[in-house]
Specification:
Helix content is 27%, strand content 20%. The protein is α/β, with parallel strands linked by helices and 316 residues long. The strands form 2 sheets. Strands 8-9-7-10-6-11-12-13 form an 8-stranded mixed sheet, with helices on both faces. The protein has a 5-stranded parallel sheet with strand order 2-1-3-4-5. Helix 3 links the parallel strand 3 and strand 4. The longest helix has 15 residues.
């Protein structure tokens, strides 16, 4: 279900004329708040009468909308715009005029955007260790749309699966200095490749090497860790990266999730874990927010060809 409180008569008229399936149009934030638990997406406009209460609620309870996409619509240059960054990137700001196509794209997507992970995360595989190719591409598409140009650091020293998936040609160059952790510019991304599993004698990076990579000025940065948690370099990263994506599938048992989270939080009590699976899990109980790729599609790039069609108006 999508819950919308726009605070704008013209936009309300457009929504009613389209009558999109699963969209509930209300007038106040209080009505939205009562539906937070059952909503997949939320839209709140700056001109809603109790908009200030919405601001305060998200500051205090933003963790209750981990899996939803929340759009806050404000005017250009509005003083209300900065608050949407409170609590991370789960809340997206739309500023100024919006058009019919933008709104229709948003409510017709099969599910909310992927979990609103921040610009830096760890990707850790859980039993039974599904391929990382699909989740890595999915996360990258969302991060590139949200943040811009970024890249991966492949720390999977056992399989180098992400590197081989994205850039097989690198491993055909026998002279490539993998031990230098050198970023490569690829199509639409950067990549620090892992040494290939068939190349012996490569030492794992030390903390100085990792800190150098953490300071790279990319718009987003994902670290692919493979499945081995106890390595020195992984423990170092757990202390410096705010979010970990736990990648499993429908057969991943809850005990694997819970014990992994317990270990991670030994080194970073503020670490934010999100469980992502390719299919709905048999075991649905989890101590962390979870997401299923079957609910998602890559974020759509917004167009502005028509402005509410016959309901064209400026906000305000």
């Amino acid at each position: 279900m999508i819950v919308m409180a726009t605070g704008h008569a013209g936009l309300d008229a457009f929504v009613r004329s389209q009558n999109p399936e699963g969209v509930l149009l209300v007038e106040r934030w209080a009505e939205v708040q009562g539906r937070v638990g059952e909503a997949d997406k939320i839209f709140i406009g700056e001109n809603v009468p109790d908009f200030g209460e919405a601001h305060q609620w998200f500051k205090e309870h933003g963790d209750q909308v981990r899996a939803q996409e929340v759009v806050v619509w404000v005017s250009d240059g509005s003083r209300a715009a900065p608050w949407v960054d409170t609590g991370g990137t789960r809340i997206v700001s739309w500023q100024g005029e919006i058009d019919a196509q933008q709104l229709q794209n948003w409510w017709t997507e099969p599910g909310p955007l992927p979990p609103m992970f921040g610009p830096r995360w760890l990707l850790l595989s859980l039993y039974p260790y599904p391929s990382v190719a699909s989740v890595a591409q999915w996360m990258e598409d969302a991060a590139r749309t949200r943040y811009g140009l970024g890249g991966w650091v492949d720390m999977d020293l056992q399989r180098a699966e992400l590197s081989i998936t994205f850039y097989q040609g690198m491993y055909e160059r026998g002279e490539f200095p993998f031990e230098r952790l050198r970023p490569q510019r690829l199509q639409g991304r950067y990549l620090v490749a892992a040494p290939p599993p068939w190349l012996p004698g490569i030492a794992p990076p030390d903390p100085h090497d990792l800190d150098t990579l953490l300071r790279i000025d990319w718009k987003w940065q994902g670290w692919c860790l493979g499945s081995q948690l106890g390595r020195r370099e992984v423990i170092h990263l757990l202390q410096h990266v705010p979010q970990v994506i736990l990648w499993g599938n429908d057969a991943t048992p809850n005990v694997a999730v819970e014990r992994t989270v317990e270990f991670c939080r030994l080194y970073n009590g503020a670490l934010e874990p999100i469980l992502v699976t390719d299919k709905p899990r048999v075991e649905t109980r989890s101590i962390v927010p979870s997401w299923c790729l079957e609910r998602s599609s890559p974020p759509l790039r917004k167009s502005r060809e028509a402005f509410w069609n016959s309901h064209r108006r400026k906000k305000g």
